[in-house]
Amino acid sequence: MNDPTADTTRPALPEGPRHRSLTRRRFWQFGAAAAVTAGAASLLQGQFAGAATAASSQDYFDRAAKLAGDNPILTDLVSALTSGFTVPHPSAPDPLKIFDDVAVLSVGWVSATAILTSGGIILIDSLTSPTDAQGTLVPGLKALGADPSTIKYVVVTHAHGDHFGGAQYLADTYGARVMMAPADWTTLATSNPANAPARDLDITDGQQLTLGDTTITLHYTPGHTPGTVSPIFPVHWQGTAHTAMLWGGTNPPTATADKQTYLSSARTFGSLMKRAGVDVELSNHPFCDYGLERMQELSGAPDTADNPFVVGTADAQLFMQVMRTMVNGRILQDQESSSSAAASTATTAVALAGTSPGRAGCYC
Predict the structure, then answer these.
(1) Structural contact between residues 158 and 249, judged by C-beta atoms closer than 8 angstroms
(2) What CATH number does the domain containing 311 carry?
(3) Measuring CA to CA, which residue among 72, 66, 86 is closest to residue 321?
(4) Distances from the Cα of 92 to the Cαs of 45, 97, 108, 233, 295, in angstroms?
(5) What is the DSSP letter of 128?
(6) How many domains does the chain have?
(7) Does residue 339 sit within a domain?
(8) Which of 113, 136, 272, 286 gives the lowest tally of CB atoms within 10 Å of its CB?
(9) 18 assigned to some structural domain
(10) What's the whole-model pTM score?
(11) What is the pLDDT of residue 338?
(12) Closest CA to 288 of 24, 65, 82
């Protein structure tokens, strides 16, 4: 997401029935209920296909809400993908190792993810500015027992300032190499935004980046920006191996064609997730997926066997299904708005055609 202009504050951990403990078992219960609604949604889709009236955007939004049920991860996603959503500014959490080999450093509304390998650190995104890098990333890593001087790569998911802002500081201070897809390097070169890093390494689609004992795979998922990248990588919790994904760009773009690209990326990435056995869902915007609340839960029970970020393979797929359903709705919403505007223009033209050009006020 772009750096928001509105500073609408949402407490990091609001009270209320929606914000409750979410263990993996609890998520599975949510997922089981959602599977029932998913079957209903598939049936509904079949009805749309055979109906005289095509599905509307609201039909898709309603279907996404049914899929989400009362699962807070999915209801957060539905909210974040809704047109007109206002980005909140929750309080920043303490730095936290959410896996044995993964740490999250966050300013609240946007986070960086550090993959801790035997050969150093791969950092996914770098927060909003050199100040964030110096004041949040560096001391946060040190507080967790990690050495920021071992940051070898900064993988920038996309060319928005809240994701690349601290990259050049880390390159200058520790010699980290900065990586981005070529399309987004080009975006930076043509727009010249503040704190943009100097062009360094290009990411290729499906590239495997190995550092020490860890290999991560970087996939092109354009739509949010032309060069958005989403990684899939191994993680461990209490010694047990899992596979994580991080969707690189959450907010659907403005143009309908770009939304269609986003939708295609979500479909492809979902298939790649399934093939890789992804069972962990992560986001660089933790208000989009109940991430801050899951961090708090894990912080309060660091020895739990039920890591709330381990959602299981079926529910990782459900996350992407909800995303695709919402984006389908947003595309139809664009088309509906366009049709409405065209109809309004046609009505005006008809009215004008029946008016004498000589009458005062006709074409002024």
Answers:
(1) yes
(2) 3.60.15.10
(3) 66
(4) 40, 15, 4, 25, 11
(5) S
(6) 1
(7) no
(8) 272
(9) no
(10) 0.83
(11) 80
(12) 82
Residue 294 lies in a domain: yes
Helix (H) or strand (E) holding 104: strand 102-106
Question: What is the pLDDT averaged over residues 10-16?
Answer: 39
7: which residues sit within 8 A by CB, 6+ positions away?
Answer: 89
Edge-to-edge strands of the sheet including 214-220? Answer: 207-211, 214-220, 229-237, 240-247, 280-283
Burial per residue of 52-70, b for 16 or more beta-carbon CB atoms within 10 angstroms, e otherwise: eeebebebbbbbbbbbbbe
User: Is 324 strand, coil or helix?
Assistant: helix
Cβ–Cβ < 8 Å for 74, 320:
no
Cβ contacts of 303-307, under 8 Å, gap ≥ 24: 304/23, 305/238, 306/23, 306/24, 306/25, 307/24, 307/98, 307/99, 307/237
**Which residues does 81 contact at the CB level (< 8 Å), separation at least 6?**
64, 250, 251, 252, 323, 326, 327, 330
Structure tokens at 220: 């092109």
Q: Is residue 75 part of a domain?
A: no
296: containing domain: 89-322
Nearest-angstrom CA–CA distance, 118 and 100: 12
* Strand order, beta sheet including 151-155: 96-99, 102-106, 111-117, 120-124, 151-155, 177-180, 201-202
What does the DSSP assignment read for 303-318?
Answer: T-SS-TTB--HHHHHH
The C-alpha atoms of residue 100 and residue 3 are separated, in whole angstroms, by 30
Locate 291 and state its tokens. 């991430």
On the question of pLDDT at 248 being above 80, the answer is yes
